[in-house]
Amino acid sequence: MLDYFGKLWVYFLYPSLLICFALCILNYLYMLTVAFFLFHILAAILSLALLARLFCFISSFVGTINPPTFLNGTSIF
Q1: Residues near 67 by Cβ (< 8 Å), separated by ≥ 6?
Q2: Which residues cross the membrane (predicted)?
Q3: Helix (H, G, I), strand (E, B) or coil at 75
Q4: What is the pLDDT of residues 27-74, one digit of tens each?
Q5: How many CB atoms lie within 10 A of CB 52?
Q6: Coil, helix or strand for 64?
Q7: Which pTM does this prediction carry?
Q8: Most Cβ neighbours (<10 Å): which of 1, 3, 29, 63?
């Protein structure tokens, strides 16, 4: 009986635990990568929005600066 459980442990349970552990680590690394890229995309969008607000704030004091426009002349803001 002990020999049966020994073979079960060596041939089935131990490799299953190793595979599960490896998949857990890969899933964790994948989620870190996704979170890293999503954070940087969000940070880029927020920084562009803050730059636009800063440009509007500065241009409100200086009347000669025209706000940026698209090629057809419509304002971005």
Answers
A1: 55, 56, 59, 75, 76, 77
A2: 12-30, 37-62
A3: strand
A4: 888 888 888 888 888 888 888 888 888 888 777 776 656 667 777 767
A5: 14
A6: coil
A7: 0.44
A8: 29
